[in-house]
Amino acid sequence: MPNPFDWGYLTSEPASGDVFDAFTIVYLVVFLGGFVVAAYLNSHPWTKPFGRMFRRKAVRKAAGLAMWVFGVGLFFFLIRLLQINPLTFGEPIWMWLSVLALVAMIAWIALSWSTARKAAATAAAAQTAHARRGKPVTQQQTRRPVRRSTTLR
After folding, report:
1. pLDDT at 135 over 60
2. Pair 66, 34: CB distance under 8 Å
3. What confidence tens digit (pLDDT) does each residue in 52-64 have?
4. How far apart are CA 153 and CA 147, in angstroms?
5. Which of 2, 60, 90, 139 has the maximal Cβ count within 10 Å?
6. Which pTM does this prediction carry?
7. Where does 44-91 have alpha helices with state H?
8. Where are the domains of the chain?
9. Judging by beta carbons within 10 Å of its beta carbon (0-12, 13-18, 19+), is residue 12 exposed, middle or buried?
10. For the chain, first and last CA: distance in Å?
């Protein structure tokens, strides 16, 4: 494999023998596996371990973003596999930019979830403090009686 950071390599269309090299196989495994896991977590955000640690909304938001990143990466892999080059999408630079987007996505999810976990821990500590003092955390909503009208026919 040539230098992956060489501009000539990044902007040239790969030869037919270079479609399945070591980088491409690892790329396919990571992006296909990531897309499947993100799709599963998007449809079932309550599954362990994410459903127990994070809110469903946060898991869905992260999984939706992950599906976009992994889907775009799989699109560029498919273009390379078919060896077509519309608008230069078959060049290796797009796959490396997809890897960069994956790293940025992981960093964003890690930062947003760490702040969310700290906020949840603070809320849980406040809730236990209220419970120790005997004060109710939230008001219990009273149920209103349902108006039932009966008519004789």
Report:
1. no
2. yes
3. 777 788 888 999 9
4. 19
5. 90
6. 0.70
7. 50-53, 56-82
8. 21-130
9. middle
10. 86
